[in-house]
Automatic annotation (TrEMBL):
Top EC group: oxidoreductase
Signal sequence region: none
GO molecular function, one term: tRNA-dihydrouridine47 synthase activity
Protein name: tRNA-dihydrouridine(47) synthase [NAD(P)(+)]
Single GO BP term: mRNA processing
Region (Disordered): 14-42
Native organism: Theobroma cacao (Cacao)
Stated role: Catalyzes the synthesis of dihydrouridine, a modified base found in the D-loop of most tRNAs. Specifically modifies U47 in cytoplasmic tRNAs. Catalyzes the synthesis of dihydrouridine in some mRNAs, thereby affecting their translation.
Co-factor(s): FMN
EC number: 1.3.1.-
Amino acid sequence: EELVGRAIAPIKREFLRPPPPSSLVKEKKSKRQLKRERRQEQKSSLNLCPEIAKTGDVNACPYKNKCRFSHDIQAFMAQKPADLEGECPFCPYGLACRFAGTHKKKSSEVNGLSKDVQKLLWKNKMRFTKADAVIKSLGLELRPSKKAKDRSLKIHPREKKLIDFREKLYLAPLTTVGNLPFRRVCKILGADVTCGEMAMCTNLLQGQASEWALLRRHSSEDLFGVQICGAHPDTVARTVELIDKECTVDFIDINMGCPIDIVVNKGAGSSLLTKPLRMKGIIEAASGTVDKPITVKVRTGYFEGKNRIDSLIAEIGSWGATAVTIHGRSRQQRYSKLADWDYIYQCVRKAPSMLQVLGNGDIFSYLDSKNHRSDCPELSTCMIARGALIKPWLFTEIKEQRHWDISSGERLNILKDYVRFGLEHWGSDRKGVETTRHFLLEWLSYTCRYIPVGLLDVIPQRLNWRPPSYYGRDDLETLMASDSAADWVRISEMLLGKVPDGFTFAPKHKSNAYDRAENG
């Protein structure tokens, strides 16, 4: 009881061990130094020109001597690491591929950005007839300096296609780690609804390939949405029109709860919670532009102790949203303290019957989900976020209504699936392998917080518990429990081969559970 009161996981005494000694974190390099090193590496034999790699012909590159990459096939092959075990999943990489075997031509992903559309976006020549007409009809500001011709489109009231979220397990859109390979893993383990990582509207409208990559969908994602974030009605309306035209999605979610400073300072994310009229304009503009269901994700309010979503919940439905997800924390709280589920229930009961309300925050066992549904039967379902990052088999536990004492071998098989999906998604050349490794390490920085059921004195584990240092029931379980980046790297080497010389890693997220950033 004392440990639980201090949010320390009550692990059985026989598994406890003294914490490993901490070591100094290596000094970070400057951005200029990193940029110079990247340029030097790009021209080195490590990076063979993609055209030459694909064809095997040194004359295939149209840029000749002006190419940014190496044209020395012999030097590239001399330093190329040994091939990885297995068959190539999907490969246009030719000589650069890290697999010896046949190359499959067909990809099972959709929602890519075509070069023609990207050029139109780059040149600001893309027409948004529907979005601009809706903005005009609502009397909202259309902000571009150049006025496009022929904006007179008559708006017809239309019936929205609806999605019934009730009883479905919804994997939240998760920045960085909620990528397509991770979502595929969660689908296998029982997730019903998946959603892409949050994409910024302005970046999508500028045709940034890295932002469009966040919209990609795998064929296994049978109920899939994308999440966008924008500060103005016209920006959001144009983005939903573009997505509706270029992508295959089942719904579009608008983020009005992101607490990150860089998003809030632009007037987007949780900043919108302080501007109800702007919220109204964005939702009305988006829902009036496309037939796809528009959903919204919010927090309880901007400031702690000043909840306000309950006063807006009835209007959100009338503005055109078909569902709203409430994260039970304010923007000021970020991810600290426990989610306020009593307030979520209060909002659910105030919502009109046509508006589905989903709850989000601290779901980490089947009992959490079961209790929320019994405490508030009007709740449509629970959205699962960090709980899925730490143990993606949470979806299986909820569906089977049990605590799964998963073995280290079973967990390793899940990581193997992730790596296979990562190589299909990011590529099987050197860059693809290292990108897969990077995102695997980001994920391992969360999974190390899982404590096996058989080691706990109190079940189930709570999301806010800090695990003390402990021994697992075998060496692999002990390794997976480590919060040292050096041990995460060791796990990645079991799946993707040795890391390149000079490799280091520090996780992107600033988790309190991450204390030591050394890489061994």
